[in-house]
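Q: Hi! Curious about what Nitrate ABC transporter substrate-binding protein looks like structurally. Here's the sequence.
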Amino acid sequence: MSRRLFSILAAASVLGLAACGSGSPSSTGGGSAPATGGGDAGLTKVSVGVIPIVDCAPIYLGDKQGFFKEEGLQLDIQTATGGAAIVPGVVSGSFDFAFSNLISVMVAKDKGLDLKFVANGASTTGEEGKDIGGVVVPAGSEIKSAKDLAGKTVSVNNLANIGDTTIKSVIEKDGGDPSGVKFVEVAFPDAPAALANKQVDAAWILEPFLSKAVDEGGTVVSSNFVEMSPELDIAGYFTKGDTITGKAELTEKFTRAMNKSLEYAQEHPDEVRAIVGTYTKIDEPTRAKMILPRYRVEFNEDAFNTLGEAAAKYGTLSKAPSADDLLP
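A: Let's find out. The predicted structure is below.
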């Protein structure tokens, strides 16, 4: 292994990048060798690292609908429990493409890794109180809005990522002081209990755990994604710069199929809810009532810049990223 590759992999491994936790892939990655056998002969095998969450439903739907086969691709979808394994997996070549939230890829780029998005993944609904994530407080809390979070203990799934970055931004926008907030790491499934047991004053929670927390008496005091920007894109599919330039045709095929998958998912919410049950343990009653993200093809550059500038302002990045360097 060259010294340069070793340093890149080392940098990736210590970033602590996460979309919904940390972990490792459930299987090893494949390259782009032609698939063989059965009815898939002649298709190019493409490995894609994803996280088993609602946001990734479009790629499963697109695979089921045959959008990738239409482009001559056979998907090898590999799940990781979180983003900590995703970026190193792409850098090492275990994944041809992978899913991650925007901040995680911004941080990797900030550390010198040559990564770029090739397709959108999931976006905020744009509706306050009806978004896929929010800051929840227990019944009777004195916290009524984002500014009241100043000086409080707030849980996020990972520090220095999209959760605390957006929360700090909306606290300041609401007239509060974000510097006094104590952020602590609590996994989303454990957040409702941490809230009920008063281990934290407020918890940032994503669906389907958000609906559970509200059902148990919690109140959403901030829809932080929406309040930062009602057009905020949260995550997307990315790859190495070398893949985009050296395997341009493969990248174009993946992007076309992924875009078709996003459009299909947006138009068929019932199918989204159904397919989520095939790759997660979310039960049918929960899937029936959970809020779905917005799936769309185009990234919103203004919202991207707002997020990147906030990440730089609060120290997650050394400088605001360039949309031209990271977006398709």
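A: A fun detail: The first strand starts at residue 44 and ends at 50.
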